[in-house]
Design a protein that fits this description.
14% strand, DUF3800 domain-containing protein, 3 domains
Amino acid sequence: MKQISLDDLNRAELNNQPGRTAFIKEWGNFEFDFGQESTSKFYIVCAVIVEDSNLFQLEESLEKIGLTEEDQARVRTLNEIIQLDFNLILLIADKVRFFQDVPLTNFQGSFVKHLYDRLYKSLYHAYPTLHIAEDQTGVSEFQTGFKDYVGRERPVHNLFDQYDFDFVAGPDRGPSQLAEWISGTISRQLQGENTSDYLNILYWKILNIEKIPGDNAVNLNPAADNRKFNQDIADLAFRKARAYIREHERDEEIEKRLQVSFLKYLIFEAQYGNPYKFITSKQILSILSNYADTRISKDFLYRKIVAPLRDARVVLASSPQGYKLPISVEDISAYLQQTNSIIAPMLHRMGLCREVIRQQTGGKLDVLAEDEFLKYKKYFD
C-alpha cells in the first residue's frame, strides 16, 4: 500500500483548483503561399479562461457591453471588458518567420502540430484540470485536431494529481464570441493597420503569450549607455531560462511547475513589459498564487523557486526591487551587491566570534578547525 507523505498532501492542496472552462478561437489559415492575398501572415489562437462560477455573469456583462467591429469604438470596448473576470492565453504564430526558419517541405503539418503542442503545454501548465468548450454549431479543423492531440498526450491519473482536460459542450455566445473577437482584434494590430496597441490594453488579462517561432532573447536595440544592455548577457539569460522550461515543462512536482511559471513570467515581462524594470516580489507572488490556487509566501518563492533555479545555473537578476532576467552587466552587479550586503556582515560576525573564542582560550580552540568550516578558516586566514 502506498504511503502518503505530508509533501503529497501539500501538493494535492496546491493543485486543487476550482472548475474552469477554456473557450478557444483562432484567426488566420494554414496556407503558406504568401503570393495569394487570402493567405494570412499570422495565425492567432486565443483561449479565454473563465471560472465556472463566473460564466453566467461574464455572459451577461458581454451582452450589455457588445463586441463592436468599429475600430474607433474598439479601444473603449477593450477597456470595458478588461474589468470582467477572465484570463487569456495566446498563441501568436508568425507564419512568414516559421516558413523561413523551418527547413521542411511539409510546412502545414509541422506548423499545425507545433501549434497543438504549444497550446497544450500552455494550458496544461497553467491549469492541469480544465474544461474545454466545444461549439455546438460546428468545431473548426484546428479544434478537432487539438482534441485528438490532447487525447494522445494527456497524462496518466494518479492518486492526487488528477491532471486532465475534458471537452464539454459550450455555448457559441459570450466567452466563445469574446475569444473570437479578441483574436480578430489582435490580428488588426499585427497586420500593421493603423490601430492602438491592443495587446498592451489586454496586458493584465494575459497569463501567457507563446510566440511562434520563439525569440532567443528579448527584442531590444542596444542602449546608448552600454551598462543598460549587453547582448551576450541577454542571450545567455534567455537561453538558460528557455532550456530549463523545455526540460521541466511537463514535470508534475509542484515546485518544478512553479519554477517554470516563474521563468515564463519573467520572459513575458521582458518581451511585453519593461525589460529594464525589476518585477516586485508582490507581483510575482500574485501570479504564482493564481497558478497554484493557494497563497505562495515570499520565503517559498526564494527557497523553493529562486534558489533551485540558480542551483540549476539559470541566470537571474535580483535586487531589493524584485527579480528579472538580466540584460546588462548592471543587472548582474545588482544581484552581486544584494548578495554581498547579506553575506559580508555574516562573515564579519563569524570572524568576530572566532577571534573572541581564540583569545579567551589562548589560541587553543579554533571553532573553524572542523572539516565543515575549513573553507571559512581559509578565508579568514
